[in-house]
Design a protein that fits this description.
Alpha-Beta Plaits, four-stranded antiparallel β-sheet, alpha+beta, six-stranded mixed β-sheet, 2 domains, Ribosomal Protein S5, domain 2, binds magnesium ion, binds adenosine-5'-diphosphate, 383 residues
């Protein structure tokens, strides 16, 4: 893929481009914890967006999408382009300029193998690849942390997606064989080993689109906030669910509605599962880690209630298959993928089993995507 992007640049715009890559991501555990100021555990994957880029000395930048086979010419001092894919690049440039960067016009060709809209965050991969590339090319001196913020603000201000910072963070800070425990309150992070010998990480796409996700997301947010507000009336210094323990929640249970209690209990438990899971990773105990993944799915399905029948169907087969160490829905819910940690020896048989049973039940065959934990944003050398 990287050679194809590089060669396309040569063909279109001539020699001398530099090549950069930034990956998509998975999240092993820690769902709906980010906006409750808890922890998430993402990792970069071996699927990337590649950007070949070179200053062009002109007024306009020329952007070519390899996968859409489309070129646009954009004045970075002018209006936002029409095409959404071009807005990601335009947005990154604007966010950098807001922070004092001077960026001359450039030519670029980009494309990659992060599946679009599958919950692997191809958009963060694109922002991070472009941000990393411009930063290196023009010597702008932004830290990886700042580049993550620039990507996040690109989504907020130029795409209209009010996302957290996890996806960009994973794309920029990822390392081969490591997961990133990100504290969403302080933005401090710690890497943990993730090298399960003889195991694979596989995503199974439920093929359900998240149509409920944004409305229900707001409902969950306010239910969790309502629970926090009850505890905060009694306990000083409570600002978010991060400060609330199960003991506090149980003490004031009678003052909150049953749904708020369940939502809060899920988040508190999910943070616990994640922290215990990280301790297990230090010891290489992937069986224990997998159990926490199953627990996460159970909580998302029963306590937080953001799963759907198709996701539960897949997670249920996983739970009853020997050699599947863990599985859970990944992402906001109401559709998207189930992430699985599976022993290599049973993996093909397991995936065949899920596909045929899912097809029998829902009349569609889910696609599966195998991923390996890979490196974050980087420059790529071409021989
Ligand atoms: P995801 O969950 O994959 O991030 P999004 O809808 O947030 O899904 O982002 C997908 C969008 O990002 C696409 O519609 C496109 O505008 C842009 N994009 C991602 N990957 C590519 C690519 N390889 N080529 C062109 N545009 C891309
Ligand atoms: Mg996205």
């Amino acid at each position: 893929m990287n050679t194809r992007i590089f060669n396309e640049f040569k063909k279109r715009f001539g020699a001398g481009a530099q090549l950069y890559a930034s990956p998509g991501r998975v999240n092993l555990i820690g769902e709906h914890t980010d906006y409750n100021l808890g922890f998430v555990l993402p990792a970069a994957i071996d699927k990337n967006i590649y950007v070949a880029i070179k200053p062009n000395g002109a007024t306009n930048s020329r952007l070519y999408s390899y996968d859409y086979e489309m070129e646009v010419s954009v004045d970075m001092n002018g209006e936002k382009p029409e095409q959404q894919w071009a807005c990601y690049i335009y947005g990154v440039v604007q966010e950098m300029k807001k922070r004092g960067a001077k960026i001359d016009a450039f030519d670029c060709v980009f494309g990659g193998d992060v599946p679009l809209g599958a919950g692997l965050s191809s958009s963060a991969a694109l922002e991070s690849a472009v941000g990393y590339a411009l930063n290196d090319l023009y010597g702008l001196g932004f830290s990886r942390q700042e580049l993550a913020k620039i990507g996040q603000m690109t989504e907020h201000n130029y795409i209209g997606v009010r996302c957290g910072i996890m996806d960009q963070f994973a794309s920029l800070f990822g390392q081969k064989g490591r997961v990133i425990r990100l504290d969403c309150r302080s933005l401090e992070y710690e890497l943990f080993p993730f090298e399960p010998q003889g195991c694979r990480v596989v995503l199974i796409d439920s093929m359900v689109k998240h149509s409920l996700a944004s409305s229900e997301y707001n409902v969950r947010r306010s239910q969790a906030e309502a629970g926090v507000a009850v505890v905060a009336k009694h306990v000083p210094g409570i600002e978010s669910l991060r400060d609330v323990t199960m003991e506090m929640l149980d003490t004031y249970k009678n003052e909150m509605d049953a749904l708020s209690y369940r939502r809060c209990a899920y988040v508190i438990h999910e943070n616990q599962r994640l922290l215990e899971g990280c301790e297990a990773l230090k010891k290489g105990d992937y069986e224990f880690f997998g159990e926490k993944m199953f627990g996460s799915h159970e909580g998302l399905s029963r306590e937080y209630e953001v799963s759907c029948a198709e996701l539960d169907f897949i997670a249920d087969i996983a739970r009853h298959t020997d050699g599947v160490l863990g599985a859970r829905m990944m992402g906001g819910g109401f559709g998207g993928c189930v992430i699985n940690l599976v022993k290599e020896s049973v993996c093909d048989a397991y995936l065949d089993d899920v596909k045929s049973r899912f097809n029998h039940q829902y009349g569609q065959t889910p696609r599966t995507i195998s991923v390996v934990i890979g490196d974050g944003a980087r420059r790529v050398e071409i021989e």
